[in-house]
Amino acid sequence: MACMRVAVVGGGIIGLSTAWQLALEGVEAVVLERGEAGREATWASAGMLAPNLEAEPGEEALLPLLLESGRMWPKFAEQLEELSGIKVNYRTEGAMAVALNRGDVEELRFQHSFQRRLGLDVKWMDGEEALEMEPNLNRNILAALYSGSDHQVDNRLVVKALKVALQRSGGVLKEHTEVKRIIVEGNRVRGVMADGLVIGADYVVVAAGAWSRRLEGIPDNAKPPVRPVKGQMLSVKTPGNNPLLTHVVWGPTRAWGMTYLVPRLDNRILVGSTVEEMGFDKSVTAGGLMNLLRGAWEVFPPIYDLPVDEVWAGLRPGSVDDAPILGPTEVEGLVMAVGHFRNGILLAPITAEAVVKYILEGGLPEVAQPFTMNRFRKEVAK
To answer: Which keywords does this chain's UniProt record carry (predicted)?
Structure first.
C-alpha cells in the first residue's frame, strides 16, 4: 500500500480531505495547488451543513448523499481537530427559514410539506416561537421552519486544520504548484506535469473545482462538465459581548434571490450569497452587495448599524445537474471529485470516503454510485 502514489489536483476542502484520508490509509498522497490551498470556493463559502432546510424539489436523488455526509461530519470534525490541534467550530444550534408576509408563509408551507414527505427533520414554528429563539429578528415574522439537524462549521478553520492534518498523516502539500497537464498514455493515467516536472502517479484525482474542465491532457470523453457559478458575500462585526444572532437564518425568496445569515464565534455574521452565471469573473459589485444587505436587513434589522468587516466573491463548481461528479472515468486511474456546487463543505467527508474506497477497493459506496460520469453518457444516449 505504501508504494501507491496518488496525485490530487486541487487543494480546496475536497482535495485536502481526500488526500488526508488517503494518507491515513498509508497511501502516498500529494496535493498540487496552483495558489494557496483552500483560498478559492472553500474560503468563499459560509460553512453551512444544511441538507434538511435546503432540500427542494428536483434534488431528491441527491438528498441521500447530502444526509449521509451530514451524519459523517461530527466524527470528521472531531478527528480533524484531534490530529491538527485546531478547532473548526462545528456548531449544532440549528437553522431556520423565516416568513414575513402571507406569500412567504405559503412558500414555507409548501417547503415544509415537501420536506416532511421526505422524512426530514424540519419543524414548523409560529412567529412568536421564532422570536423566542432569535429575539433580534424582524418583529413582524409570521412563521418559520427550524431544523436542529442542520449545523455549521467554520470553513476557513477547516482549511487550516486540513493542511496540518494532511502533513501530520504523511501526505504532501505543494502550494503555488500549477498542474500544466495530466499525463495519459494508452488510456491510462501516468501522473501530472507541474512546474516543468513530471510527477508520476498510480491515480490522479481531479479536485480543481470550477477550473477542472480546463486541465490539459484529459481526453474529451473524460472532461467533467463543470462551470463556475459566482457567489458574492459579505460579513459584519457584532459587539464582542453580544452575538445578536445564534442560529443560521434564511430569509424569504425575493426578486433578487434569497439571503442567509451565518453567525460565527469570532463576532462576525456572514451574509450570502448571490448566484450568478458570470464565467470566471470574481468581482464584487455594488448591485450584488445591495441585494445581500437588503435581504439581510429585512430579516435582521440590527445589521443596519453593524460595521462591514469584509466583502468577497467565489466561484462554485457547478455541474450540468448541479450534483457532484465522483469516481472513475473513461481513463483508467483518472478519478473525479468535482462539481459540488453549493454543497462542497457538506459533501467533503462522503467525497473523501468515496474516492478512497474506489482507489483502494475498486468500487464506490452505494450512496455515491449514482454520481459518476456515467450519468451524463446515459443522458446523451437517450
So the answer is: Oxidoreductase, Thiamine biosynthesis
The answer, as to whether pTM is greater than 0.90, is yes
Q: What are the extents of the domains in the chain?
A: 5-77+155-225+320-381, 92-151+228-319
Q: Which residues contact 245 (CB under 8 A, 6 or more apart)?
A: 134, 136, 238, 261, 263, 269, 300
133 in Cβ contact with 70 (< 8 Å): no
Interatomic CA distance for residues 355 and 326, integer angstroms: 7
What confidence tens digit (pLDDT) does each residue in 263-318 have?
Answer: 999 999 999 999 999 999 999 999 999 999 999 999 999 999 999 999 999 999 99
Task: Please give the Cα distance from 306 to 276 (Å, whole number).
Answer: 26
- For residue 340, the 8-state DSSP code is B
E strand map for 148-245? 151-152, 172-174, 179-185, 188-194, 197-200, 203-206, 226-237
User: Looking at domain 92-151+228-319, what is its CATH homologous superfamily?
Assistant: D-Amino Acid Oxidase, subunit A, domain 2 (3.30.9.10)
CA 88 – CA 157 distance, rounded (Å)? 5
- Give, in order, the Cα–Cα distances in Å from 132 to each of 127, 138, 141, 142, 287: 9, 12, 11, 13, 33
